[in-house]
Amino acid sequence: xDGKRGLxxxxxxxxxxxxxxxxxxxxxxxxxxxxxxxxxxxxxxMRGTSLHWFRDLFAEQAVGDIWGSFRRSxxxxxxxxVTTIVLSVMGGLAFRRRFxxxxxxxxxxxxxxxxxSILVSLGVGLMFNQLGWNINWYTSAFGAQLTWTLPFGLLIxxxxxxxxxxxxxxxxxxxxxxxxxxxxxxxxxxxxxSLIGVALxxxxxxxxxxxxxxxxxxxxxxxxxEIYGMTTNVTTPVIFALGTLTTVFSFCVIGTFIVxxxxxxxxxxxxxxxxxxGMV
Length: 280
What we know:
With 280 residues, this protein is mainly alpha-helical. It is 74% helix and 0% strand.
């Protein structure tokens, strides 16, 4: 029996390692190739090692608008993140009570997750054309990306409020707190860790979204669209250097959110501890 358990353990470990290689292998390969020398190409074997292609990223580009597209993606991701947080909280609060049409509205919101992304992009683009509105990254692309991020934020808030203990709110109201004070001092601090998760979903899903932005960004590309365009006319490892930098940036964003969540949890634990000492 112990031998069988040992064999199954090694098999599962091997499968897991293969899965990790399949998952992160392309990213690691791109990172390695981005450190080639000036004569490097897009495939192995490597021709020297240097930071040449990273320096080339910050030089004037003959093709593309890398840093302009990065700024647009960053601004769009922040817009989508903030809007997703606000609407998710409002939706979560609204769905705490049943109201006429709540079930239909819920399924309408969630349906955007199963509609092919390219169809959403096409539909939003056609709608803006029919209405005579300009198609650009901060209006049409913004709306198209919300159809992707908002359902995730709402699902998180639904789960949070379904297990939320309302006795805290009732105690605050018994002490004379108005609805805004109850939300600000009771509800918001308790759901703050979940809001960090919603923010992370909103930012990361928007930052690398391609399909829903393809037909809604207009003439100014976001970073995923710019990288896709570069694959057709850039034949140097500079595109690998860009991919490495954007990957590092994504991990930095995720790490920042995690650190912020840990700091918030420690602060809340300290407040609870101080409150308990005060009662004693």
